[in-house]
Design brief:
By secondary structure, the protein is an alpha/beta fold. The protein is built from nine helices and 16 strands.
Amino acid sequence: MTQTAPAQTQDVLTGMLPTLVDLRRDLHAHPELSFEERRTSDVVARELEASGVRVKRGFAKGTGVLGYLPATTGGGRGVALRADMDALPIVEATGKPYASTTTGVMHACGHDGHTTILIGAAKVLATMHRSRPVTFIFQPAEEGGGGGDLMVREGALRGENAGGLGEAPERIYGLHGWPTFEVGKVATRPGPLLASTDDFRITIKGVQSHGAYPHFGRDPILTAAHVITALQSIASRNVSPLDSIVVSVGAIHGGTADNIIPEQVTFIGTVRTLRAETKKLAKERLFAVVENTARAMGCEARIDWHEGYPATVNDADATARFFGIAEDTLGKPRVELAPEPTMGGEDFSFYGREIPACFFFLGLRPKGATTFPTLHQPDFDFNDEAIRTGVELMVALALRG
């Protein structure tokens, strides 16, 4: 009797799942920072090639990997699936036997799990009949390095004749392990899902003086305090209460002694928005608030603005396809509409600027648990129970998405 695709996926996956768990833990024990994912890249290429997947390396400053499986019947444009590979500069505190062997570096965002899931999906798909080709994107440097942008620029989505492999895909799907959703469940929503991530560095320059004689100087610390407070008026007075924006200052530096008013103070922060119009307004207001507040206090301001990732916006049609396929594959109770976007950022957004895209959350919270370490915390560890769900759904999206 001929098996259905879901049944075949289950059978193949059940046999390889222990190996995938071992692989995930090996990646966890050997984390690598953005653009340094050399060992990880080698592991990915080795596993893909062993399964008969065509591989092209050297993307995105050297560590990006592209895999490709052609259609076995039919043909034409297919689907791309993406995983990120980099770790974070965090000292691990999980106490696990497979904890990081590199001091000060750990997989605190689950990219070890993402990479393992996409390797697993490639292995399963290599055993199946495929009516369309599949492109596998393993990218470096999601954590602030913009590896996704480089993969796109270098042709990962454009096919054989424009830097990529095989036929150019017509849609792309990606996932992220998510601690607030229960393991075995997935969630997403159409439209904006994650925010744009712009950063700023502001230097306030005044006139240094003795702390006992402030009238002889121009105080950049007092000015910085007024500026930081005034920046919160962007969210409270310039943007609709029904819109979403975050303006946060994360660090401030200045001064050398308790009785010296310094010449300058520097502080850094981030602006998160979901809409292009709000992003534009926020930048304009930030410059106006900083420059005019500093001028009113007798100081000067220099603003260094860094354009970060765009908002991750899910295509309506690709997201509708996702929901239909996910419900067929996992069952309707395990598929949720994400109640709201998140103000975190993701460079999956760059793929969505090129072709229709859908990004979704993969539940990690153990069943029955009320809490679970969240992303970028030193005690976070990807939940291996989520691997099966991730692989099942990635395979189904490749075949039907």
